[in-house]
């Protein structure tokens, strides 16, 4: 219920029930707004044969890239995979199944899953490999591809601030995929930088209502920069 205290005391408790073969929805874009401590806990637990849905798969040695090191991910659904050499190696070796999805389609598939919409038609991808094997229909003289919604067993989300009831605020660009993922998991776990008492957040500033959040934990974050460009 939205009015219950959602806080848990450890990352072990936050991911209680995670099992081999589950589908994990992970917020973040590049290394911005990723649930880095929850990812580290998944690595520590050693769960395998995971399907992971995220915009990308982190980088070598950080973010979701950590889960590739012990081959915990068997299937990845993402829109971009260009920053991870280990990912490339496992893909080319046939160790990792990859479903590349246009970024807007990925966002809408997750949003639809969270809204209880099983599928939708989109023009994006028509006439390309993205549409292979999928139903195509014509509307007003234009062809559209049927895309199925995405849901997951567990959604791992990074927020900026939350109250004890699980109402979450994201900060700037770190909002990215996080609100979508939060709605589409059977269990949604959110880690944040600060937790305040219920009633302290301005209701107009809340991005994810607590009704979507099952577990909440306060952590510390490295917030690694993916690519840094400075003047010579």
Automatic annotation (TrEMBL):
<dbReference type="GO" id="GO:0047569">
    <property type="term" value="F:3-oxoadipate CoA-transferase activity"/>
</dbReference>
<keyword id="KW-0808">Transferase</keyword>
<dbReference type="InterPro" id="IPR004165">
    <property type="entry name" value="CoA_trans_fam_I"/>
</dbReference>
<dbReference type="GO" id="GO:0042952">
    <property type="term" value="P:beta-ketoadipate pathway"/>
</dbReference>
<comment type="similarity">
    <text>Belongs to the 3-oxoacid CoA-transferase subunit A family.</text>
</comment>
<dbReference type="InterPro" id="IPR037171">
    <property type="entry name" value="NagB/RpiA_transferase-like"/>
</dbReference>
<protein>
    <recommendedName>
        <fullName>3-oxoadipate CoA-transferase</fullName>
        <ecNumber>2.8.3.6</ecNumber>
    </recommendedName>
</protein>
<comment type="pathway">
    <text>Aromatic compound metabolism; beta-ketoadipate pathway; acetyl-CoA and succinyl-CoA from 3-oxoadipate: step 1/2.</text>
</comment>
<dbReference type="InterPro" id="IPR012792">
    <property type="entry name" value="3-oxoacid_CoA-transf_A"/>
</dbReference>
<dbReference type="Pfam" id="PF01144">
    <property type="entry name" value="CoA_trans"/>
</dbReference>
<dbReference type="InterPro" id="IPR004163">
    <property type="entry name" value="CoA_transf_BS"/>
</dbReference>
């Amino acid at each position: 219920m939205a009015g219950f205290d959602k806080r848990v005391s450890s990352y072990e408790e936050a991911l209680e029930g995670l099992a081999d073969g589950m589908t994990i929805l992970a917020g973040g874009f590049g290394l911005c707004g990723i649930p880095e401590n929850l990812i580290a806990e998944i690595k520590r637990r050693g769960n395998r044969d995971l399907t992971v849905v995220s915009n990308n798969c982190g980088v070598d040695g950080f973010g979701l890239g950590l889960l590739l090191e012990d081959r915990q991910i068997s299937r990845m659904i993402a829109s971009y995979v260009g920053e991870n050499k280990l990912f490339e190696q496992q893909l080319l070796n046939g160790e990792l199944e990859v479903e590349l999805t246009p970024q807007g389609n990925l966002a809408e598939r997750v949003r639809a899953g969270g809204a209880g919409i099983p599928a939708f038609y989109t023009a994006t991808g028509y006439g390309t490999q993205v549409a292979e094997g999928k139903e195509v229909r014509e509307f007003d003289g234009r062809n559209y591809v049927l895309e199925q919604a995405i849901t997951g067993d567990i959604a791992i989300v990074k927020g900026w601030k939350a109250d004890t009831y699980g109402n979450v605020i994201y900060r700037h660009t770190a909002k990215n995929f996080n609100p979508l993922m939060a709605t589409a998991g059977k269990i949604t776990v959110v880690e944040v930088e600060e937790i305040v008492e219920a009633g302290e957040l301005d209701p107009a500033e809340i991005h994810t209502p607590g009704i979507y959040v099952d577990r909440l934990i306060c952590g510390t974050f490295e917030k690694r920069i993916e690519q840094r460009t400075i003047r010579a």
